[in-house]
Design goal:
heterodimer, A: alpha+beta, seven-stranded mixed sheet, four-stranded mixed sheet, B: mainly alpha, MetI-like fold, 2 domains, 13 helices, 77% helix
C-alpha cells in the first residue's frame, strides 16, 4: 500500500502543476478591434517572413506593414502611376545621375528629422552583404554596389555605396552604375524607405518595434502570429488626409478563417478573398468589394537550355495556341484570374491589350498545323511540372487536359514538392519537361517584367529558368534604360516585349486579379500594387 | 517507488539523444533548400544565399551540423530560425497557447466522455444508451475541419457568442470552440471505452458482493465499479494528453491559433531543422512525462499494482 499511496501524491502533484501553468499567463485582453466607432481598421495579413526591417522585407505580408509605417520617395497612386511621395522632385539628365529633393517636414515617430542621410544610411545597410538583407539585389543599380558585395567569405572594404551623396539635408544625389530609366519606379518599393539612427544600434530589436516616417506608428511590439497594432502619427505631414485612427494588422494562417471573420464583422479588410468565398463574396459584402487587375502573371515555361525538343519556337506557339485561357480563368479560378495577352501586367504603364495576339488565342486547327510543322515532341509526350504546395494542381491539370485534347499529345501534370525541386531536377537533368511559373513585380515598371525574368543575367541572378538568350532583346533593354523620357523608355521596352512575344520562352497564361473585400466600417478604399492606399480609405 | 521514478527519468536521456539525432537526419534528408524557400518562386540572390548558408552551416556535412546544434543546446542556446528568430522565443510564445487549448480539451473529453460512458453503461439498452451511441458515432465520423467550420458558422457568425478565430479574447472564450473540436473524437472513444469496461465490472462478483453487503448504490458505482473500469481509460487519456500537447495542426489552422502544431508544420515545410528538432524534443519530453504519469496512476486506481 505504501508504494501506491506515494504514487497517488506524485500523480496529484503533477496534475496540479499542469493545471497551474495552464491558468497562468492567460487573459490576454482583447484589443477591441472590429467593434465599430473607434476608427481603427483591421487588416488581414499572413505572418511576415522576417522582422519588420524594410530592407529585409521582400514579401507582401511584411510589405503591407512597412507601407503603413514608412513613406518612401515615390509611391503608386490610385491609377497605378508612379508619383512623388516624400520626394519634391526627381531630376536627371542621363538616367545615371539623379538629384532628388525631399519635401521638408517629415519626421520619424521618435521625433528625429528625416534627411537625405536617413536614406543613404538605410540603403548602405541594405546593400551590404554583411547584413545579408533579402532585398540586397535591388540596390545593385547604385554605383559602388559591387564593393559592398565581394562574395561569400570575403569582407567588403567599405560600408558605403560610392554612388550616394547628401548634397544638403534635403537633397540626395544618386549615381548609378549604368543608366536606368526605371529608377524612380524602383524607389516606390518598400525597401527604399529611410530609417532613423536608432535602427543601427539594434537592427534586430528594431524589427520587433519599427520606427518609421509614415502615417502610422507602432503601438507596442510586433506580436508574432497574432497582431501588429498601429495608431495614426499626428505629426505626419499629410495626417489630415488619413481618416483611419489606426491600423491593426491581424495575422492569419488561413485565409478561409479570415473570410469568415470579415463577413461576421470581426475584420475590416481582406485583400485576398479565398476560393471558398469567391462564389458568394459579392452577395456577402454588397458594395464592399474591389475587383481589379493585380501585378502578377502566370506562365508555363520551357527548359530551352536543357531540352532540345523545346528549342523550336513554333512548337511553343502551338502549345500556347492549344490552351483555352478563358476557361482556365473563369471556370478553374472562378474569375480570380483573367486570360493573359501580354508579358506585362495590365496595371503597368506600357501594357498593350492583345499584344500576344494569335499566339495567346485558342485556335485548335492552327495549333495542330504548327505542331506538325515544328516536328513535334519526342514520343508525342509533354510533361508540365508544378509545385504541389501552392494550389497549382487544378489549373495545371486543366491546361494539361486542354493541350492533350487539342494537340493530340499525351500530357501529364507532374507534381513536385516545392518549386525549387523542379529547378534542381532540371539542373540535375532528372527532369526535362515544362513547368509552371509566375512573376510578381518588385517595382511598377515594364522593365521589371522583362529583365529579371528573360535577360541573360537572370539565368544566374534572376528567374530566367528556361535559359532563354536573345541578343536583340538584350540590346533593346539596354537602349530602354538610356531613354531620355519615361515614354521613350516604354516604347523601347515594348519592342523588347515584342521580341519575347515572337520567341515565347514562357507562354503567358493568366493575369492575377485582386479580389478584395472590406467591412461596413470602411466606406471606400483603393488598392494599388497590392498595397492599401491609406489616404483613400474612408471610415464610416 | 522513488527508485522507479528515478529509473524512468534516467531512461529519458538516451531517448532524447536518439530522438534529436533521428529527427535531425530526417529533416536533413528532406528535398529542397531552406534558403531558397525564403525567396519563394523567385531565385534567391546567389551571393546573399551563400552568405546565409555559411552563417547557418548549411554547407557542412550532417554530423557537423548536428554538432553545431547540439553543442548550442548544451550552452542553453536552442538556435534560431532561418529568418533570425530565436527558437526559445517561439516556444515561449506558442507553448502557452497549445497548453491552454490542450488542457481545456483534455478536461472536456475526460469529464464528458467518462460521464456519458457511465450513463450509457448504467442505462444499457435504454433510450439514453442509444443516444450516446449515435452521438459518439457521429463525432467519430465527422472530420475535424467540417465540425470546426460548422461551429464557427453557428456560434461565431450566426449567434455571435464566441469569437470565430484568434486568441485575442483570451481564455476561456477564444478556446471553447477549438477545444470542443479537438476533444470531439477522443471524447467519443472514451465514452465507448468507459461503457464497455463499466458494463463488464457491473456484472463482476465484487460488485454483486458490495450490493449484497448493503452499500449505497452511489458508492458501489463510483468506488467499486468505476474505479476498476478506469485503467484502459487512463491509458488512453495519457496517450491523448501527449498528442494534445503536440499541437493540433488542423484545429489551429481552422481557428487561427498560434500554437505549436502550426509552427511545426511550417518549419517542416521550410526545412528548419533547429526548430523541428527543438519542438519535437519538447513534445517527446511531454510525452514521456504523460506516460510516467499514467503508469503511476495505475497504482492509484488498482492497489494491487506495485512498482519495484
Amino acid at each position: 500500500m505504501r508504494g501506491a499511496k506515494s504514487a497517488k501524491w506524485v500523480a496529484i502533484a503533477a496534475v496540479v502543476a499542469l493545471g497551474a501553468t495552464a491558468c497562468g499567463g492567460g487573459g490576454d485582453s482583447g484589443s477591441g478591434s472590429g467593434k465599430g466607432g473607434n476608427g481603427i481598421v483591421s487588416v488581414e495579413i499572413g505572418e511576415p517572413q522576417n522582422g519588420l526591417v524594410p530592407t529585409n522585407t521582400y514579401e507582401t505580408e511584411g510589405g503591407q506593414v512597412i507601407n503603413a509605417l514608412f513613406t518612401g520617395l515615390t509611391k503608386l497612386d490610385a491609377n497605378n502611376k508612379v508619383v512623388n511621395a516624400m520626394a519634391q522632385s526627381i531630376e536627371t539628365k542621363d538616367n545615371k545621375v539623379w538629384t532628388i529633393k525631399l519635401k521638408p517636414g517629415y519626421t520619424f515617430h521618435n521625433g528625429e528629422k528625416v534627411t537625405a542621410q536617413s536614406f543613404i544610411d538605410a540603403w548602405n545597410y541594405g546593400a551590404n552583404q554583411t547584413n545579408a538583407q533579402q532585398t540586397n539585389p535591388l540596390f545593385s543599380h547604385i554605383a559602388g554596389y559591387s564593393d559592398l558585395n565581394p562574395g561569400e567569405g570575403k569582407k567588403p572594404k567599405t560600408d558605403k555605396l560610392s554612388g550616394l551623396k547628401a548634397v544638403d539635408d534635403n537633397t540626395l544625389q544618386v549615381t548609378l552604375t549604368n543608366p536606368f530609366a526605371a529608377f524612380p519606379s524602383q524607389l516606390s518599393f518598400t525597401a527604399f524607405v529611410p530609417v532613423p539612427k536608432v535602427f543601427f544600434k539594434d537592427p534586430k530589436g528594431f524589427g520587433e518595434a519599427p520606427i518609421g516616417n509614415g502615417p502610422f506608428e507602432m503601438k507596442g511590439k510586433f506580436k508574432h502570429n497574432e497582431e501588429i497594432s498601429t495608431t495614426k502619427y499626428a505629426k505626419y505631414p499629410d495626417a489630415s488626409k488619413i481618416e483611419a485612427k489606426g491600423v491593426d494588422f491581424k495575422i492569419y494562417s488561413n485565409v478561409d478563417t479570415a473570410y469568415k471573420d470579415l463577413v461576421a464583422g470581426n475584420l475590416d479588410v481582406l485583400l485576398t478573398i479565398p476560393n471558398s468565398g469567391l462564389p458568394t463574396y459579392h452577395k456577402d459584402l454588397p458594395g464592399h468589394t474591389i475587383d481589379e487587375a493585380d501585378s502578377a502573371v502566370g506562365y508555363i515555361g520551357f527548359p530551352i537550355k536543357y531540352n532540345k525538343a523545346f528549342q523550336n519556337a513554333d512548337l511553343r506557339k502551338a502549345i500556347s495556341m492549344s490552351i483555352d485561357r478563358k476557361t482556365i480563368a473563369e471556370k478553374v479560378f472562378l474569375g480570380a484570374r483573367t486570360p493573359a495577352d501580354d508579358y506585362i501586367s495590365p496595371i503597368i504603364d506600357g501594357y498593350r491589350k492583345g499584344a500576344c495576339g494569335d499566339a495567346c488565342t485558342l485556335n485548335v486547327a492552327k495549333a495542330k498545323d504548327l505542331y506538325k510543322k515544328s516536328g513535334g515532341l519526342p514520343g508525342n509526350k509533354l510533361e508540365i511540372g508544378y509545385n504541389a504546395d501552392g494550389g497549382h494542381k487544378e489549373w495545371v491539370e486543366a491546361v494539361a487536359n486542354q493541350i492533350q485534347q487539342n494537340l493530340g499529345v499525351k500530357v501529364t501534370a507532374k507534381p513536385f514538392e516545392q518549386f525549387q525541386t523542379i529547378l534542381n531536377d532540371l539542373d540535375a537533368k532528372k527532369y526535362q519537361g515544362s513547368f509552371r511559373m509566375a512573376w510578381s513585380m518588385d517595382y511598377p515598371d515594364m522593365e521589371d517584367y522583362l529583365r529579371p525574368v528573360f535577360s541573360k543575367d537572370a539565368i544566374t541572378n534572376g528567374s530566367n529558368y528556361s535559359g532563354y538568350v536573345n541578343e536583340n532583346f538584350e540590346k533593346l533593354l539596354a537602349q530602354g534604360d538610356k531613354a531620355p523620357t519615361h515614354e521613350a523608355a516604354v516604347k523601347t521596352y515594348q519592342q523588347a516585349d515584342d521580341v519575347l512575344l515572337k520567341d515565347l520562352p514562357y507562354i503567358p497564361v493568366y493575369f492575377y486579379t485582386l479580389n478584395a473585400g472590406f467591412s461596413d466600417k470602411v466606406k471606400s478604399m483603393k488598392v494599388a500594387g497590392h498595397q492599401i492606399l491609406w489616404d483613400t480609405v474612408k471610415v464610416s | 517507488m522513488g527508485r522507479y521514478v528515478v529509473r524512468r527519468l534516467l531512461q529519458v536521456i538516451p531517448v532524447m539523444i536518439g530522438v534529436t539525432f533521428i529527427i535531425f537526419c530526417l529533416v536533413f534528408a528532406l528535398p529542397g533548400d531552406p534558403i531558397q524557400a525564403l525567396a519563394g518562386d523567385k531565385r534567391a540572390d546567389p551571393n546573399i544565399a551563400a552568405i546565409l548558408r555559411a552563417h547557418y552551416h548549411l554547407n557542412e556535412p550532417l554530423y557537423m551540423q548536428y554538432w553545431h546544434y547540439i553543442s548550442g543546446v548544451f550552452r542553453g542556446d536552442l538556435g534560431e530560425t532561418y529568418n533570425g528568430r530565436a527558437i526559445s522565443d517561439i516556444v515561449s510564445q506558442r507553448f502557452p497557447v497549445t497548453l491552454k487549448l490542450g488542457l481545456t480539451s483534455f478536461a472536456m473529453e475526460a469529464v464528458i466522455g467518462i460521464l456519458a460512458g457511465m450513463l450509457s453503461a448504467l442505462k444499457r439498452g435504454k433510450f439514453l444508451d442509444n443516444v450516446v451511441l449515435v452521438a459518439t458515432l457521429l463525432l467519430i465520423s465527422i472530420p475535424v475541419f467540417v465540425l470546426g467550420s460548422v461551429l464557427q458558422l453557428e456560434f461565431g457568425m450566426n449567434l455571435k457568442i464566441t469569437p470565430i478565430s484568434g486568441i485575442d479574447k483570451g481564455w476561456p472564450q477564444s478556446y471553447i470552440l477549438p477545444a470542443i473540436v479537438l476533444a470531439s473524437t477522443s471524447m467519443a472513444y472514451i465514452a465507448r471505452l468507459v461503457r464497455s469496461s463499466m458494463t463488464e465490472s457491473i456484472r463482476a462478483d465484487y460488485v454483486r458482493t458490495a450490493i449484497a453487503k448493503g452499500l449505497p448504490r452511489r458508492r458501489v458505482i463510483g468506488l467499486h465499479a468505476l474505479r476498476n473500469s478506469l485503467i484502459p481509460v487512463v491509458t488512453f487519456l495519457g496517450f491523448d494528453l501527449g498528442a494534445l500537447m503536440g499541437g493540433a495542426i488542423i484545429t489551429e489552422r481552422v481557428f487561427n491559433m498560434p500554437g505549436l502544431g502550426g509552427q511545426l508544420a511550417q518549419s517542416v515545410y521550410l526545412r528548419e531543422s533547429p526548430v523541428v528538432v527543438g519542438l519535437v524534443t519538447l513534445l517527446v519530453l511531454i510525452y514521456l512525462a504523460a506516460n510516467l504519469l499514467v503508469d503511476l496512476m495505475y497504482a492509484v486506481l488498482d492497489p494491487r499494482i506495485r512498482y519495484e
